[in-house]
Every structure is written in structure tokens, then in C-alpha cells.
Specification:
Number of helices: 0
Largest sheet: 7 strands, mixed
Oligomer: single chain
Radius of gyration: 14 Å
Amino acid sequence: QGHPVESGGGTGTTGGSLRLSCDASRSPFQNTEMGWYRQAPGKQREMVARIVFDGRINYSDAVKGRFTISGDLVKKMVDLQMDALKPEDTAVYYCYTARLRPTIGSEWGQGTQVTVSS
């Protein structure tokens, strides 16, 4: 119930672009942050980018300068523009939301595959 729904992704080429979108508008909660994680085969899930309620935006070092996150926590939607793609960006990308009320918690989407060919 109310889990984020990702769209976009697919296959891109090195140096190309892809865009991901996340819709968490069905969530009954007001979130304090939204963002994206990714998990490559055989690796741990890692944070990619996030937007916090106070306006802060954070990126991992691996994507800084190449990816851009945008969104609206009130509308519960967030996008991830991925430019200058690299083969190492290949992973399943997960959208998440996090909240402090009524209880501390987070919700995750099912993930969308991004594959970058060289």
C-alpha cells in the first residue's frame, strides 16, 4: 500500500542519458526525504541521490556532476536525470521514501533496471 512506483530506465549507451521517475503519491504519509538507491549484481545497495525536506540534495561521489535529482516532497514525486552514463551505472535502481511520523519508516519501490552498454 502506497509504495513508490518507478518508471523509466532501460538500456542506454556510454555517454548517453536516461531518466527515471518515481511516483509515491499513493503513500498516506508525509515524507521527510525521497531519493534513489541502486544495486549492481554482486554488490551492496548504495545511495545515489536524495532530496531532504529542508531543501538539501545529496549525491554519491560516483554520480556527482552526472546525475540530477529533482522533485517535490509535497507531491511525492521525484525524478533522476542520468547523463554521461557509464557501464558501471548498470544496476537496479530503487526509489524510496522516508518519514518520521507517525512512526519512523521507509518504503521502497520494486526497482527498475538500468543497463549501460559500452
